[in-house]
From TrEMBL:
This is Transposase. Pfam families: HTH_28 (PF13518). It comes from Ktedonobacter robiniae. Residues 9-58 form the Insertion element IS150 protein InsJ-like helix-turn-helix domain. Gene3D superfamilies: Winged helix-like DNA-binding domain superfamily/Winged helix DNA-binding domain (1.10.10.10).
Length: 116
């Protein structure tokens, strides 16, 4: 799910500061009561309403997959996901699971559909 825009967050907090009721804000902006409470608290404590960064480590394998995968797909059009994983490991020395390979292929927009 994408984060709400900073503009919407600012309008929600401004409505809270104006003294509007929570129910009115819910109806007006289409956000939940918990969201209103969260934005008001975030603004009070940090003074900033920007979305927080996504927790966790950044993906390491997918960046390298995106850079070199297209040529492998072109060369091995009929290979399965598992075969692409073995080919990638043989060429680059990096083990990749089928799910990761599938996400990378989907991100590139590659399909196995044969077009005339």
């Amino acid at each position: 799910m994408k984060a709400y825009s900073t503009d919407l967050r600012e309008r929600v907090v401004r409505a809270v500061e104006e003294g509007r009721s929570r129910e009115e804000i819910v109806q007006l902006f289409g956000v939940s009561r918990a969201t209103i409470k969260h934005y008001a608290k975030q603004y009070r404590e940090a003074g900033d309403l920007g979305p927080k960064p996504i927790p966790g480590r950044p993906a390491v394998k997918e960046a390298s997959l995106r850079s070199g995968l297209w040529s492998q797909l072109e060369a091995n059009r009929d290979a399965t996901l598992e075969e692409h994983c073995h080919i990638w490991e043989a060429i680059h020395g990096q083990q990749v699971r089928a799910a990761t390979m599938g996400r990378a292929i989907k991100h590139l927009g590659w399909t196995r559909k044969k077009r005339p």
